[in-house]
Amino acid sequence: MAPLLLLLWLGSALCTQELVPKQCLLGPEFWCRDPGTAAQCGRQQDCKLLEQHVPQDWHVREQALSIRCTICTNILKKLKSMVGDDPDEDSIAEAEDKLCGVVGRGLRRLCRYVMKKFKSKITEALQDGQDPKEICISLQMCQESPPTQGGLVPPSDVCDLCLTFTSLAQPDLQHVRPGWDLGDVMNSTCKRHFGGSPRCNDFVSTYQARLLQGLRVPQDPLTTCVDAEACQVPEESAQGETSSGIDTWTWP
């Protein structure tokens, strides 16, 4: 009973938290994924408290592809675009110092956390010619896909799958030409990134019509998935959100 009361208390605290990224409204399961997310949501102490009082089997499950992987990859894609294909140590150092100022307000704190903790490893990896996903795997921010899958492993949770799928599909939809079927583009996203996984195909079949409405306009993946009813934001938080000036994450 004590763990349940603790979770309810943490959830109710969302109502009084202002000026946080919209994703932080998803509650303790999102806050406590990793130290960087806890720091961005301003919930370090809450996650420590949850760690102390919640039994082991209540802990947040590991995701095959988590939000932190998408964030890490996007941050390093921005860094790589700043340093080019043949960077030297000076150009990397200069770009790293500027990086967290250009990735967008929502990612800034997490960017600083990643760069402070992994700066030397990132510098070395860029000089070795590693791509952003490889670097994030080496930093344990992403999980390597099993070789038998032929692609990424779709998360089992529908909200996590929606967030991941949407962030991958948005670049594909930017290149759609007149006359192309958007549904076919979404199916090709499943095939290319998830090896044609039945779970991904079922997700597209279920949510395609609702997702297309959100993917046609520039907005962050969480907003798209909430509009598609694949993710839910606590009602108490959603009611106070419109006038609070909440910052949403910018996806480079």
Write up this protein.
There is one protein chain. With 252 residues, the protein is an all-alpha fold. It has 3 domains: 2-58, no CATH class; 67-138, NK-Lysin; 158-238, NK-Lysin. Helices cover 60% and strands 0% of the residues. The chain has 13 helices and no strands. The chain has helices spanning 2-12, 28-31, 35-40, 44-53, 67-83, 89-102, 105-127, 132-138, 158-173, 182-194, 198-215, 221-227, 235-239. α9 (158-173) crosses α11. The longest helix is centred in the middle third of the chain and has 23 residues, at 105-127.
CATH topology description of the largest domain: NK-Lysin
Can you tell me the overall shape?
globular
How many H/I helical runs?
A: 13
Top CATH class of the largest domain: Mainly Alpha
H and E order: HHHHHHHHHHHHH
* Number of separate strands: 0
Report the β-strand fraction as a percent range: under 5%
Mean pLDDT: 68
CATH architecture of the largest domain: Orthogonal Bundle
Computed Rg: 19 Å
Helix content estimate: 55-70%
How many domains make up the coordinates? 3
**N-to-C terminal Cα separation, in Å?**
42 Å
Low-confidence stretches: 1-19, 53-65, 146-150, 236-252
Structural class: mainly alpha
Biggest sheet overview: none
